[in-house]
Every structure is written in C-alpha cells, then in structure tokens.
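Provenance

Sequences were taken from public entries as deposited. Structures were produced by running a predictor on each sequence independently, with no templates supplied. The record for Putative integral membrane protein from Aspergillus niger is shown for reference.
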Amino acid sequence: MFTRRVRGVFEHRKQLLIPSRAEVSQQSSKGRCLVIIKGNVYDLSSYLDSHPGGSSILLQYAGRDATEAFEPIHPDNVIEKHLCREANLGPVADSDMNTAPVSAPIKMSSSASSLEKSIPSLLRSVVNIDDFELVASQKLPARSFAFFKSGAEDEETVKWNRNSWKRIRFCPRVLRPIRTIDLTTSILGTKYSTPFFICPAGGAKLAHPSGDLALTKAAGKHGILHWVPNNTGYSQKQLADARADTQTLYWQIYALEDLSVTEKEIKQAISLGYRAFALTVDANRVGKRERDVRLIIKEEELAGIQADEDNAFASGPTVSRSHIFPDFDWMSAVTWLRKITDLPIAIKGIQSWEDAALCMKYGVHPWLSNHGGRQLEGAPSAVDTLLAIHTHCPEVFRRCDVIVDGGISRGSDIVKALALGAKGVGLGRAFLYALALGELGVDKAIRILKNKVETTMALLGVSSIDSLGPSYISASTDHDRLPRSRSHL
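Predicted structure for Putative integral membrane protein:
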C-alpha cells in the first residue's frame, strides 16, 4: 500500500495513499510506470504509447526521479497539457529517508580537459564557429553533448552535409566599387538584418539553463530570426514576452496524431504574434542515433541499471512515432493548415526537387533539410537538392522562399547557399554549441557569422544579397553545372 506519514497520521488523497520513493521503485514495471518529476509522482502507464520520444525513454526512468532529465527539454506546462489530472498521484512521501532519490543519468565529463574557465576567457578563445563545438565538448555533460553531436547510424550524412558545401567554388569579380555590404533580406515576408537564422532545435536547455530564452534575446539584439522549436523548454508566451520591441518570431510544428492539439498550438502562437510556421515532415520515425545509444548503455552500466534486452534503446529508438499524424498527403496537409491560418508556411524536410515543386504547387515554401543528418542515413544534403531544383524546376526559386539548413559552419557556406537561390539559411548545432556559453556565446556566434558573410561578399564583388546568383559560383562536376546568368555584368 502507498503511504505518506504526516505528523504521525496517514494522509489519504483521491482514495489512494501517496507513494514513498521506495514504493515508487517497487511498483514500477512495464505494467505500471511511476516517475517522480519536481517532487510529484506521476503514473505514466497510459501515456507510454503516445509519448513523442517513444515508451523506452519513459521506462528508463520508471521508479526513479527524472526531474534533471525532464526540465531541460520540456516547457513548464507540458505535464498539464498532455497528462490527465488523475496521472498526478501527488507529492512523493519523503519519510523513508534511507531511500535516496535517483535523478538524471550520471554526468560523465565529455573531456578530461573540461576545467572550469571564466566565460570571457572561453569566449576569447573562440575564433570560428567550430571552436564553439570544442568548448561545448569540454563544458557540457557527455549526455548533452552527445545529443547535439549525434547523427543517424554511422553519421555519414552529418559529414556529407558539411562536405557538400566544399563542392561549390566561388567565381569572384574584381574592380567593383564596394564601400558597404547590405545583408538585410526578407524571409517569408519579414525583413531581417541577416539572411542566416537560428534553426528550431530541441533541447536548448541541455546547453544552458536559459535555453531558447537566450537564443530569442540574442536574435532580437541583432535583428535576426529565431525560428522557435516545438519542443522548446519554455512556453510560447514566455518566449514571446522575451522579444525585443520590433522582433518577429516564427514557430515550428509537428502534426500530432490528435490534430486538435496542434491546431490549438498554432492558434495560440498566432495570438502571441508568431508570424510564420514550419511543418516538419521528415520525422515520422526516430532515426537510430548510435552515439546516444552507446552512451546510454555506458551510463546504465555505471549506475548498475539492468535494462531489459527488448528495450528499444538497445538497438536504437527506431519505433514508429505514434504521436505523428500518419495519414496526411500534400493536399490534406496544406488544406488543414490553411483552414487554421493564412500566414506563411514552410514545409521542413524537403529532400527532392519533386517535393520542392509540390511546395510551389500548393503555395507553401520548401525547407531543404535532412534533419541535420539525424534521421535517414544517406539522405541528400541541401546542396544536392538545391542543384537538383536548378536542373529540373528552377521556377521554384522565383515563386517560393527556399530555406536551407544542414552542415553550415562558415559565412562562406551561407553565401554559397544564397547564390544557389536560398532566401534563408539556418544553423542549428552551431548555436546550440555557442549556447554552452550562454547568451554571450550566441551573441559572439552571430557576430562571427555576420562578419564572415560580409567579408565573403566583399571579396566576391557583391554588395547586397539581391545581387547574388548562380553566376558567382560553380559546382565541382559537369553533372552539377549551374545556369550562367550574366545579369551581374
């Protein structure tokens, strides 16, 4: 029986007595999954099959205190939003003082050289975007860094995302008067100070407690776009309240199996001033991220946890994401969205020229992305898809705002994407690594990228974003040959 002793008397709540930590552990099994979060006991048994990350991650914390793992990646209202009231069994009884809470996974240092240094000292050591990754690898817990770093399977797609930009070479023009460089551009109808932006990327609080709040504030300071992720650690309102006076935020969504939940989310975002949306469509299953899996196994061994052999994490979280609405096609998805809003919509996860053409057909904007190489191993890079669009349906660039992400680490990469026809260029991991140093880190990352984009454009002989085009670049093979416009002569 669950008990809670208060001043020597057993207290009852909702016909059940409140469980102690020891009883939470004893009662938890696959049949009943009790988890402690922020001092309360939750029965997640009926939620296992609908959890966005799959049941295995919940079962990993069955009978344990999951607060430290929960807080960095969930907004404050997520429990009330997704769980019925009866799932909350009330505050955990702490009368059994000999039963210590088991919290987040063991925090193994990701580097032996992770010595404490002052933030200013670390910032001075950062010269380029890749330096932020090195700092993050030394500063963050191994689990957090692995979450950001990991890609699907052998991570070849992650590598290809970066290497594909190197296939593109510049064709600079000289003896051109260039006094200033204008980076202002429009992305989905809103003017921003730079063509690059902060991608929606979950788990920002794993990098720093301020998470997406710091990303929003840094973006507002510089007048760049922060495209907020659906699985941010803050509520829509908290981030909207953190905006600068003239700042505009966009919101990313997944179409959940209960479409009414997503519809409510979109309407609330609109009421709070979010001015565009991205529907992510490349994550109906979770890619197998072996870097994460191996670290989880190592942590469980160190903690003495005996995981079940059929636990999905033993072979990677590859089960179907049951929370994603499975029946959409192009017409039904866009029709559903257009019944809710007439604001600009990007379809995130476009990986073929055919789907880019369908975006054009249905009046939405193609976001060329393979989810940072975290989903399908062997997926094409944004460069691959940009080149294919030029070959097969270049009209897309005239009728849509083409957005890209994946493998961007240099200002020169951003300029190449713009010359290939992109209107907005997103960076995800780069800003998460920078966030390891808080808002100051994000601020410096933005300044580094802005400086390098300006320098690249000046050396290329271009003074404004609108002047860029395919004539300023060349691909490395005949197959990738681009149309040669003479408009800049």
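The chain has 19 helices and 19 strands.
The first strand starts at residue 5 and ends at 6.
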